[in-house]
């Protein structure tokens, strides 16, 4: 049995075939494509038509390569959504979470529901990119699209709808919206009522490892993939990535390392304390009835933007070259707080970092190596402070951290994390999201029994690499010196 994982990020997407053979999961990437947001007028959209066309191409190429697919499943980034009318037509390209339409919406919402009350219900970190504020912005502007909309479908739900004709909202992606009750795991009527938002738009909640429906006939004919199941998985990519971690007990944490960093633990129940809210922790839905109690942190976005600038200027920016320069740069000269608003939408990330260092009385990084070292060391220091708050809020004693996602390939960053946090850092699941997606499809397709069996397969399939703490005294001194930047 082969399964197709469609793993879509805010920038690129991939179609990856996975199959389980001789107790191991095997992956084959059959299609990769770009998925950048597109500005039109004063709005930043996702090009859903191009996205869906590439999804169909991924299916077609998997079939062309000779795979007999048992299932397909989608995972994407969180919060963004599309609206369809009562006839099932897409009313507009979905708007990107980086669009400015939500600016000030948190303050507008506070007039009807306090941040404390909203957190007590939803358990979600208050960020203006959240779906609740996107929906509120449409209401505030009296956008006519709301009056004709029939359903709100988050990005993976929207794709599943056009693949199958079945409109529903998957739990893990719905949990990112700040519209879901964290305890009941259903839509919060109280939040909709207090903000006067259209509750009628919300659909039935479905959970991972279930069948959504069959591929539409016209898509089956177009791709050659006849009679294929479309399964629900943890359609928030973070949920699928964390589901792939083969860990036991309560002494471990996860770090999903990419454009965003998500640092947290899995729990059985949400943590809805005021302490958790004040420390910006969020309770998002996980696979296998778990809650992902974690903090969203601006991550390798900073490095990505630096590299984009250097590439556009025609400068040398191969990773090997940059990391070699980084190693030669002086340590701990410049530390930044990646969550500072200065780094959200800067015209130039290089200048934003330099200006931050200038304003905080630090050495200004000039060379590429110094800038890269600044970013990587700063992320490790940020993780240190978030980890301290995480352990305080949960009462857990964390001994090791699993790093998954693209950032897990960054050996310098991984060693910095081990040094700064003084704990073992375990990597090896660079394709955690796709692996988690495939394993959940195998459960839904009844090839394997449960996630426990899936974890045994994953252990057999991928070799772990462990980074051990070193130079901890130097890191402790640097963290003590820079702590005022993170208070």
Automatic annotation (TrEMBL):
CDD domains, sorted: ASKHA_NBD_FGGY_RhaB-like
SUPFAM superfamilies according to UniProt: Actin-like ATPase domain
Pfam assignment, any one: FGGY_N
Molecular-function annotations in GO: transferase activity
Limits of the Carbohydrate kinase FGGY C-terminal domain: 254-444
Highest taxon above the source species: Bacteria
EC id: 2.7.1.-
Domain Carbohydrate kinase FGGY N-terminal: 3-241
Keywords from the UniProt entry: ATP-binding, Kinase, Nucleotide-binding, Rhamnose metabolism, Transferase
Protein family membership: Belongs to the FGGY kinase family.
Matches recorded under PANTHER family: SUGAR KINASE
Name the record gives this protein: Rhamnulokinase family protein
Annotated source species: Dysgonomonas termitidis
């Amino acid at each position: 049995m082969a399964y197709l994982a469609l793993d879509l990020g805010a920038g690129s997407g991939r179609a990856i075939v996975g199959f389980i053979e001789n107790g191991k999961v095997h992956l084959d990437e059959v299609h990769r494509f770009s998925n950048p947001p597109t500005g039109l007028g004063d709005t930043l959209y996702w090009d859903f038509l191009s996205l869906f066309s590439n999804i169909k191409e991924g299916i077609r190429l998997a079939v062309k390569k000779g795979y007999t697919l048992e299932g397909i499943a989608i995972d994407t980034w969180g919060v963004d959504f599309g609206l369809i009318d009562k006839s099932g037509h897409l009313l507009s390209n979905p708007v990107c979470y980086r669009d400015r339409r939500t600016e000030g919406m948190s303050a507008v919402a506070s007039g009807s529901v306090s941040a404390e009350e909203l957190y007590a219900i939803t358990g979600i970190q208050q960020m203006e990119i959240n779906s609740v504020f996107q929906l509120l912005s449409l209401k505030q502007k009296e956008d006519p699209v709301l009056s004709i909309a029939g359903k709100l479908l988050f990005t993976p739900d929207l794709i599943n709808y056009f693949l199958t004709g079945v409109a529903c909202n998957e739990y893990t992606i719905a949990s990112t919206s700040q519209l879901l009750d964290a305890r009941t795991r259903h839509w919060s009527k109280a939040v909709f009522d207090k903000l006067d938002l259209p509750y009628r738009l919300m659909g039935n909640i479905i959970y991972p490892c279930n069948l959504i429906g069959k591929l539409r006939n016209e898509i089956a004919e177009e791709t050659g993939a006849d009679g294929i199941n479309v399964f629900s998985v943890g359609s928030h990519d973070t949920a699928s990535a964390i589901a792939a971690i083969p860990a036991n007990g309560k002494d471990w944490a996860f770090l999903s390392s990419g454009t965003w960093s998500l640092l947290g633990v899995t729990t059985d129940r949400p943590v809805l304390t005021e302490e958790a809210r004040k420390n910006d922790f969020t309770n998002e839905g996980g696979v296998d009835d778990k809650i992902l109690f974690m903090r969203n942190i601006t991550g390798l976005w900073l490095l990505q933007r630096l590299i984009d600038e250097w590439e556009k200027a025609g400068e040398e920016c191969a990773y090997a070259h940059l990391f070699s320069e980084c190693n030669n740069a002086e340590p701990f000269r410049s530390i930044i707080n990646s969550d500072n608003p200065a780094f959200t939408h800067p015209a130039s990330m290089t200048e934003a970092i330099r200006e931050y260092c200038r304003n905080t009385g630090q050495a200004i990084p000039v060379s590429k190596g110094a800038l890269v070292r600044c970013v990587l060391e700063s992320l490790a220091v940020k993780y240190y402070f978030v980890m301290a708050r995480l352990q305080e809020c949960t009462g857990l004693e964390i001994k090791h951290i699993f790093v998954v996602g693209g950032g897990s390939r960054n050996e310098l960053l991984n060693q910095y994390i081990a040094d700064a946090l003084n704990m073992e850092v375990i990597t090896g699941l660079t394709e955690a999201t796709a692996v988690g997606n495939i394993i959940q499809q195998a459960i839904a397709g009844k090839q394997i029994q449960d996630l426990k069996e899936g974890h045994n397969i994953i252990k057999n399939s991928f070799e772990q690499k462990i980074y051990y703490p070193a130079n901890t005294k130097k890191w402790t001194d640097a963290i003590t010196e820079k702590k005022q930047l993170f208070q």
